[in-house]
């Protein structure tokens, strides 16, 4: 199995290491590579003639991104309007924006509310609106990066192959372990699995061409291995999530942790934070009582391995444990006042985990096993060298 170097020293040596907001210098791309990035952009933004496109933005979004979406909309015979909110951190849509959204058929959004506000979910479900969330496309220059140029169809096949690694049926436990002592367990029922498999993201649907869809651009970490709403859970439901996560790093910290830090769950709730470091004290001050919002897994082989800002790593097999706290973190508000996520959210990160779904291994020592799926390898051959495409991770 491929061994990854992910010690603190390795992460610190990376030119693209990022846990706090900072500009990363992007290398120039060739004309051929640039065209692949633009082609992916135009395909994912599947705007149709006659669409009414609404864009929900924030003051820190690169204005060229708005111009790109507007230009594509007008070029396809669609109408366009944008609404700039105060930030990305809305958890519910403001009333004054709802009048604009009601008319939309296609929405491009930077807002956190896009995924979880029942109002937004209802617009997709009841009106068939197609939504694209652009958490990872805040700078037009990202079109020149390998992760933006990675074939969208191949990424979809990787996602479907990961989905095939879940058990076919029955109840099971999703278990995460690692060399630091992590032993974290999420009970799955067959009903939860069925609900999850029906979601368009687990079908590898990365193009916004189906009524009611919700996709991400730039397509990066793929669907979460666990997300309460995706498996049909209500906020008050308790399923018995338990165990302790010993992360290597977390969003909001400039460097990976040099001292052990453990976050313990009992009956779905964070009950303790173990460790003596200042980072452990930060976590202890606000994570107690928090709940798991997501267990995310990277899927894009060309996403920089050690770039975890703003919402966790997107490299295959790298995990992020998203926890929502009961109150905002004063520490995060100090170090990331303009963060794209709400300050109640914390993404713990591991690069060397093993993930078992029942008796099936999905991730081994930080390597996403779906990259070795025969259908994935066969499709990769149509785009180039499968080894280079799937296993040459940028660091």
Strand order of the largest sheet: 11-10-8-6-5-15-16-17
Q: Which class best fits the helix and strand makeup?
A: alpha+beta
Helical content stands at: 25-40%
Please summarize the sheet with the most strands. Answer: 8 strands, antiparallel
Order of helices and strands: HHEHEHEHHEHHEEHEEEEEHEEHEEEEHH
Overall geometry? globular
Mean pLDDT: 95
Radius of gyration using CA atoms only = 20 Å
- Give the beta-strand count: 17
Strand content: 15-25%
Number of helices: 13
N- to C-terminal separation? Answer: 19 Å
Q: Outline the low-pLDDT stretches.
A: none
Tally of individual domains? 2
Quick overview of this protein structure:
With 395 residues, the protein is α+β, with helices and mostly antiparallel strands. The protein has helices at residues 8-12, 31-44, 63-75, 95-102, 113-116, 118-127, 146-149, 152-164, 190-197, 278-287, 330-335, 374-381, 386-391, and strands at 52-57, 79-84, 106-109, 130-133, 172-177, 183-188, 214-216, 242-245, 249-250, 262-266, 269-274, 291-297, 319-324, 345-350, 354-357, 360-364, 367-368. It contains 13 helices and 17 strands.
Q: What do you see in this structure?
A:
The structure is a single chain. It is globular and about 55 Å long. The strands form three sheets. Strands 11-10-8-6-5-15-16-17 form an eight-stranded antiparallel beta sheet. The protein has a five-stranded parallel beta sheet with strand order 2-1-3-4-7, sandwiched between helices. It has a four-stranded antiparallel beta sheet with strand order 9-14-13-12, with no helix packed on it. With 395 residues, it is α+β, with helices and mostly antiparallel strands. It has helices at 8-12, 31-44, 63-75, 95-102, 113-116, 118-127, 146-149, 152-164, 190-197, 278-287, 330-335, 374-381, 386-391, and strands at residues 52-57, 79-84, 106-109, 130-133, 172-177, 183-188, 214-216, 242-245, 249-250, 262-266, 269-274, 291-297, 319-324, 345-350, 354-357, 360-364, 367-368. It folds into two domains: 31-144, Response regulator (Rossmann fold); 151-210 and 218-391, no CATH class.
